[in-house]
Design a protein that fits this description.
- The protein has helices spanning about 1-15, 25-35, 40-65, 70-80, 85-125, 130-140, 145-165.
- It is mostly helical.
- It folds into two domains: about 1-105, no CATH class; about 125-165, no CATH class.
- It is rod-shaped, with a radius of gyration of 27 Å.
- The termini are far apart.
- Residues about 15-20 have low confidence and may be disordered.
Length: about 170
């Protein structure tokens, strides 16, 4: 009976460590790992450390300016590399966030450059305005928010139009 009550107390105390986001399955994995390598208070300390790292990692992700898809991608990538080692995941999540932020910055710069190039193409060609407007609308519908592909589409059209014109 004492063991049962002690076990019930320990399980209850572990649940109090858990974050609102942390699933029961995640907490179970942390417990299993803790009791595989540690005993007693060491296991409890390890669980606290893992849960704290888990919470810190998600706070970092929530405070970043990344999209939900990018955050989910980072979480999946870290799970693939470190499984349920949230201590390690928390230590490298900053690098992953920085990497995705850098990618976002480069994409934005490329889109701005491509958008400028589209304006130059519009001004420097002999295609009738009605046809050009239709092609630009088609490129925007085909590649929304991707000005590089819109630029390529428009350049391809201009090139083909000029070949047909000859």
């Amino acid at each position: 009976m004492k063991k049962f009550l002690l076990g019930l107390f320990i399980i209850g105390s572990f649940n109090s460590f858990a974050s609102e986001k942390m699933s029961e399955n995640t907490l179970d994995n942390i417990r299993k790992e803790a009791y595989t390598f540690y005993n007693g208070s060491e296991a409890q300390d390890y669980i606290r450390w893992q849960v704290s790292s888990y919470n810190k990692m998600y706070k970092k992700l929530d405070s970043s300016n990344l999209t939900k898809e990018q955050k989910d991608s980072i979480v999946e990538r870290l799970k693939g590399m470190y499984r349920s080692n949230y201590i390690k995941q928390n230590s490298v999540v900053d690098n992953e966030i920085a990497r995705y932020s850098e990618i976002n910055t480069k994409v934005e710069e490329n889109n701005k450059l491509a958008e400028k190039n589209i304006e130059i193409i519009k001004k420097n060609n002999i295609i009738p305005e009605k046809i050009l407007k239709t092609v630009i609308e088609k490129s925007k519908s085909k590649y929304p928010n991707n000005y590089e592909k819109q630029q390529s589409y428009l350049e391809g059209f201009v090139e083909n139009y000029n070949l047909l014109k000859k």
